[in-house]
């Protein structure tokens, strides 16, 4: 983070599994358990879910930047926590079901969130950690970032990470990662379409901040409308997608922010967004 950004930032919380910092419309959510490889433990998932839910209702938040402390972005599920549940009478079935449903809800919250979510990846993202990256709207990685779905190596196919992965990369590339469990570097992740850009580690925070600040300068209503329409049309046939998006465009044109934005463009001035 730049000195200017740091000085202008408002720390919301520095302790707990998720550190929060809000600055100029950009909410930085930091996975804050490096000693546990930022694994998606019950505590971590609950903290991230709470932070995302709160951000959805906070008009001061325009963009969310998801990052992590330490050299591991996220190591996936907490396998020690999950293994402990095998001692239950049902061998962990109820617990495993609850954890997977909680994780699925978290990932869907990111996709359906009214604010754009950007992953800032500096380190290893594995299994559900890769799923977390793939669920974000944008992902910027440092040149030392690494990615893999290694479940196949321990007898546990990465079936839920597969959902997000297969919606970002081609089927052949997704299956390559899922079947081999091998690590890919940041440049390969970019070739596959898993991340948007790869930058030197020293410039990662600066580049992601620039992306976040640029997006935060747009109309929050327009961003919400556009993100929602993007994911909705992606699941439709071509004809249905055009019908849906045509109606979205009509409603968007009737919004005050669209009227203001078009007027500002014609009058060669900076628009003033109201979010209406």
TrEMBL record:
Keyword Repeat found: no
NCBIfam families associated with the record: PRK08139.1
Gene3D superfamilies, alphabetized: 2-enoyl-CoA Hydratase, Chain A, domain 1, Lyase 2-enoyl-coa Hydratase, Chain A, domain 2
Gene Ontology MF terms: hydro-lyase activity
Family: Belongs to the enoyl-CoA hydratase/isomerase family.
Role: May play a role in fatty acid biosynthesis and insulin sensitivity.
Protein name: Enoyl-CoA hydratase domain-containing protein 3, mitochondrial
Pfam families: ECH_1 (PF00378)
UniProt KW Transferase keyword: no
Recorded superkingdom: Bacteria
UniProt KW keywords: Fatty acid metabolism, Lipid metabolism, Transit peptide
BP GO annotations: fatty acid metabolic process
Highest classification ranks of the organism: Bacteria, Pseudomonadati, Pseudomonadota, Alphaproteobacteria, Hyphomicrobiales
